[in-house]
Amino acid sequence: MSIRFEEVSKRYGMQLIVENLSLEVRDSELFVLLGASGSGKSTMLRMAAGLTAVDSGRILFHDKDVTRQRPQERGVGFVFQHYSIFNHMDVAQNIEFGLKIRKVPAAERREKRDKLLDLVGLAGLGARYASELSGGQQQRVALARALAYEPQVLLLDEPFGALDVKIRSQLRRSLKEIQRNLRVTTILVTHDQDEAFELADRIGLLERGRLVEVGPAESMYSKPKSLHAAIFLGAGTVLVGSAQNGKAILGPLSLPIPDDLPHEEGAKVQVLFRPEDVNILEAPPPAERSLGLGVVIEQNFMGALRRVRLRLPQLPGTRQIAPSVPFGEEGLVVDAAVGSKMPPDKNEYWVSLQSYHVLEQVGPRVLVIDNDRAPFVLRIAGQLVDRLEGSSTLLSIVKDAREEELVRKDLATRQQQSGLENAEITIRTGSVPEQILMEQNTGLYSLVVLAPPPRKGVAGNMLERRTQLRSLRKLGGTVRRVLQHVIVPTLILKSDRPAFTRLLICTAVGEPGKNDVRVGGRLARRLGASVTLLYVAQGSGGPKGLVRAHLESAASTVRALEVPVEIRVRQAESPSEGILSESRESDCDLIVIGNHGPSRSIFGSSDVTLQVLLGADRPVLIVPEGESF
């Protein structure tokens, strides 16, 4: 029984959970949907079972459309994470329950029950109740009950998540054996990559409701196509260099790029190597595979292996994506795997590569919101996409679907004049802010670009709440609602500035401030811009020790990206006043600020982000917490 999802979408209010997802699960396959919490994997399973309605698209079982069928008509067995067996029934009654309501004769029920008890390893325990069973045994009962009426499809939603490690491992082996014996098409949802590796015939990796990559576990681990798969599936180091004459240049290293993964000359190259691909040596290795002399900073016992982490000098023209280099530190961090019986006895080792994998060439994805009230947006966005070496989607929202074709033609004409001639055009119908958020939530974008409607001016004292609210309305409802739910860095183009060569990054002590520095620094590196790190001190006196340490660490983080950086400390009565004054005096091209005021919302009366956005006369990049560029 094959299962096919055809452009399936599901949303809850403004939140798009699954977006135009297409996938085929083969007959008798054990397919694993893998992803972080909130990626949409459980929603996919519930739509397949008929427990959650599909908003658009189709689901087919063996080429039969079951999209609108009721759950009991689909022939599906479903096992939840939390056993869900009936406490007032014994094991035998639980297993027979589905058969009984289908009016299967008693003798046949008993025969199937006994076979299933033996199959799941519970023979002789049919008279026990849930209170007399372990968690693993209860989950075996749930599995047997789901298999009792011989479903054509078996769906398992993190079935081992509530169990301890040893029981999980035993049940995984049992499940794989049962699935192979019965040859029932199975989809299992999990966020545990070890579980996916052990069970899956194939893995589908989900991120924000989209299918990032599909393939056998081994190939997705050793040769992932995407950066997300490379980082999510197992530990590893990802370095970014440049392509020259068919090779990835990482400082002194020159690594051949495979013919099936071509990169344009001068393009960025992402190189992955797992801990087992790394050697640590006492003597210098051949130069063509040497990463340099590293210092051991950490080692962890992991059973058969020992994970050793080393810090190495920065390689010229090279940037590290994973693992994340600690804030304020320069250089590279590399993980190596060695035998656990041979712990490192020295502090320094030479590090070399046994093997590596080049990821497919990609650039940042930019979502550009068309606003005919601010026509310069397309032109500036075109320049940005070109300098970022990325791809773009040009989004326009119409109120009536009948307008779509006319708007598409007009947009196609204007995009040719803006440098966005290669942009994908997307037309959505409905509320402007809602449609922007839906596209943003699921498009795996790195940056959103939009402009507020023109405004006539801002009243004097922005610190007064009444005046703030009046001014806020002049930003437009679209901008306000988008910023309330922003999940990727969002560039608000408040003026027509021809270039972004000087970035003002506003920072404060703490994790959100560190993230703003990282995002702004990476953007500056891609744009070839310089950075001023600004800290606004309120009251008299210079910055205290903790602030100075933060600023020095921030500067080191930016320098590690090979971006020119200076530190600026400014005295002001309020952070917003200091930021706005500095932006005007330095004539920066872009203000970078976090979306993290006191109430974690731009609507708080003392929210610095809001005050800067309202008062700025130049573009502002708003960085949500935890997001990267």
Describe the structure.
- The chain is of the alpha/beta class and 629 residues long.
- The protein is 31% helix and 29% strand.
- It has 17 helices and 31 strands.
- Strands 24-23-22-25-26-31-30-27-28-29 form a ten-stranded mixed sheet, sandwiched between helices.
- Helix 3 (106-119) packs across helix 4 and helix 16 packs parallel to helix 17 (608-615).
- The longest helix is centred in the first third of the chain and has 18 residues, at 165-182.
- The protein is globular.
Concise synopsis of the structure shown:
It contains 17 helices and 31 strands.
Largest sheet: 10 strands, mixed
Q: How many β-strand runs?
A: 31
Q: Going across the major beta sheet, what is the strand order?
A: 24-23-22-25-26-31-30-27-28-29
Q: Helical region count?
A: 17
Straight-line N-to-C gap: 42 Å
* Secondary-structure content class: alpha/beta
- Compute the average pLDDT: 84
Percent in helix: 25-40%
Shape: globular
Low-pLDDT stretches are 455-475, 598-605
Cα-atom radius of gyration: 28 Å
Query: Per DSSP, what share of the residues sits in E-state strands of 2 or more residues?
Result: 25-35%
Secondary-structure blueprint:
Blueprint: E1 3-12, E2 15-25, E3 30-34, H1 41-49, E4 56-61, E5 64-65, E6 76-79, H2 91-101, H3 106-119, H4 135-147, E7 153-157, H5 165-182, E8 185-190, H6 193-199, E9 202-207, E10 210-215, H7 217-222, H8 227-232, E11 237-244, E12 247-250, E13 253-256, E14 268-273, E15 278-281, E16 290-302, E17 305-312, E18 319-322, E19 332-339, E20 348-353, E21 357-358, E22 365-369, H9 376-388, E23 391-398, H10 404-416, E24 424-429, H11 432-442, E25 447-450, H12 465-475, H13 477-484, E26 490-492, E27 502-506, H14 511-527, E28 530-538, H15 545-559, E29 565-572, H16 575-586, E30 590-594, H17 608-615, E31 620-623
Parallel strand pairs: 3-8, 3-9, 6-7, 7-8, 22-23, 22-25, 23-24, 25-26, 27-28, 27-30, 28-29, 30-31
Antiparallel strand pairs: 1-2, 1-4, 4-5, 9-10, 11-12, 11-14, 11-18, 12-13, 14-21, 15-20, 16-17, 16-20, 17-19, 26-31
